[in-house]
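Session log. Operator J.P. requested a structure for one protein chain; no other inputs attached. Running the standard single-chain path with token output.
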Amino acid sequence: MKKTPSPPKHRIFELFSNDNASGVAYKNKFLKRSILSHLDLHGDFTITELSRELNTSVPKITSLVNELIEDRLIRDNGKFDSTGGRRASIYGLVADACFFIGIDVKKYYINVGLLDFRKHLINLKEKIPYRLENTQESFQQLLELIRQYLQELALPKNKILGMGINLSGRINQTTGYSYSYFHFQEEPLAQTIQREFGIPTFLENDSRAMAYGEFCSGEVAGARHVLFVNMDYGIGLGILVDGKLYYGKSGFSGEFGHIPFFDNEILCHCGKKGCLETEASGQSLLRKFREKIKQGFTSSAMKKKKDPAEITLLDIIAAAHQEDMLCIEMLADLGEKIGKGLAMLINVFNPELLIIGGTLSATGDYLRLPVKSAINKYSLSLVNSDTQLRISRLGEKAGVIGACLIARDKVLSL
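Structure written below.
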């Protein structure tokens, strides 16, 4: 069988660009994008159905579909039985026409995945060891891990149309600047990485990307107003209003973990005292666990570790699932505190759905039940009765899928 050559990258980008387009050429581009968008949102269609949905003549749609087939962006998926008359061909996106990479950067590892044109996650590598620090060494290690992943994929570079990278902290997704990590030079971080690999690169806050991945995966059952709480070493919040990510004026919305919630003298990494993160985050859980061990408490989490400083959140989660009482009790205390904060969010936003994701979501009911109890205790019953509480169903995949989809959206809207 003759191998089909890869489509030139510039042809695909040209379709989604309005440069040098006017009159009939612009109208044809618009209609082609409309065809792709319709197939993207609603699945495979016949020429007649596309003609009706886009209010354009059958001959015109036929001509544009044939051009898109020549560009190897859509394909004829064969005939299907119709109610009378000739059997019609059904058309859909070509899955391997192009790909998008998503990189979800955690504190101690990264998750990387590859999404095809039909939005299927076809490759995923989880928990690749990595240590996130605001240093040149950490940045160079991240670049090397991305380079290794690209080499393992062995895909022609002209088929990878975009790369999304999630980082915690303050990200301006419009300019590509990171204000929390790797801000060593004047140019945007996204631009630096793009120059390194020659792939259009887009930065996003990790909690927003996770929220978007969960939303677009179909797991939210039609909900349009969604809060996604990222429970990791810190606390992040992704906000979806009417199905769209909410960024705020400068793109820094969702700093839920830095609400001055407690009257304590614990210094948060943001430089202020009393933040929600100082008492209700994964980092605070680790701090309190180590203090308990020094006080003489015992835990199965310490079986393989001699030094409490070596304990990670994954160790505490594993111990809780083995019915370790110290870890279970500490998760219950954390759940009560974060639940009180979530009750405040419910009172303010009145969401349809509240999703708990991130590393700590793997604790399941050990976290969910005390959170639910605190929400019932501290929020207005008339308001919280509208809100479903759910643990993330995508787990570690949420951030990767979100990063891929955001890169895909950015490229296809250029």
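Operator note: Confidence is low (pLDDT under 50) at residues 1-8.
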